[in-house]
Amino acid sequence: MSDMQSASSPTRPVRFGWFLAIAGAVAWLASVTLTLERLALYNDPGHVTSCDINPWVSCGAVMQEWQAALFGFPNPFIGVVGFAVVVTIGITLVAGARLPRWYWIGLQIGMTLGFAFIVWLWSQALYSIHILCLYCMVVWAMMIPLFVMTTARNIAAGVFGGGPRLRAAAAEWGWVVAAGLVVLCAASVLISFSGVFFG
C-alpha cells in the first residue's frame, strides 16, 4: 500500500480535502476582513482598522501603500475569490470526488502563483514598507502550508511523474517542510521587527 493510500498519510484525499477546506476558510475569513476594512477606509479615510495596534502593526497603514493594490484593486479581493475556490475543492474531496490530473495541475498552478505573490508581499512588508498587517500574516500562515502540501500531494500522487522514493518522501515530509517554512517566516518577522517586539 502506497503512502497516498495509507490512512495516516496527510495527503490522503479526504484528509487533504479537510486540510484545504479548513486552511482555505481561515485565509478566506482574513481576506474578507481585510476587504471590509478596505471598503470602510474608502468610505471614511479616518477609519481606524481593527488591527491598527501601533505604527509598526497597522493594516490601515499598509493599505495606503501601492503594494496593497498591485493590480489596480485591493489585494484581498484576490484572496476572497481564490480561497473560496480552495474551500470548494476541499469540500468536493471530502465528499469523495475523484478529480482528474488536469484539475490537480490547475490547482498547483494557482497555489504556486498564490505562494509567489505571498512571498513578494512578505518581502515588501519586511524590507520596503516596514509595517506589519496581522490579517495579512494570517493569510501568509495559511498560504505556506497550502502550497507545500498541494505540491507534496501532487508529487506523492504521481501528477508530475517521479519514482516511488520521491513520492514516498513527498507524502512523509510535506508537513515538515511546511512547518519549517512557517517557522522561518515567523523568525524573519521577529528579526526584522526585533526593536518593536523586544525594545
Characterize the structure shown:
With 199 residues, the protein is mainly α. It has one domain: de novo design (two linked rop proteins). It contains 7 helices and no strands. It has helices spanning 13-43, 59-63, 76-94, 101-129, 134-156, 164-192, 194-198. The model is unreliable at 1-8 (pLDDT under 50).
Topology (elements, then pairings):
Blueprint lengths: L12 H31 L15 H5 L12 H19 L6 H29 L4 H23 L7 H29 L1 H5 L1
Helix pairs in contact: 1-3, 1-5, 4-5, 5-6
Descriptive terms for the model:
mainly alpha, 71% helix, VKOR_sf, disordered N terminus, quinone, 199 residues, transmembrane, 0% strand, de novo design (two linked rop proteins), 7 helices
Report the mean per-residue pLDDT as an integer.
91
**Uncertain residue ranges:** 1-8
CATH class descriptor name: Mainly Alpha
- What is the overall silhouette? globular
* Helix content class: over 70%
Strand content: under 5%
Counting DSSP H or I runs of 4 or more residues, the number of helices is 7
CATH architecture: Up-down Bundle
Provide the structure class.
mainly alpha
In short:
The protein is mostly helical and 199 residues long.
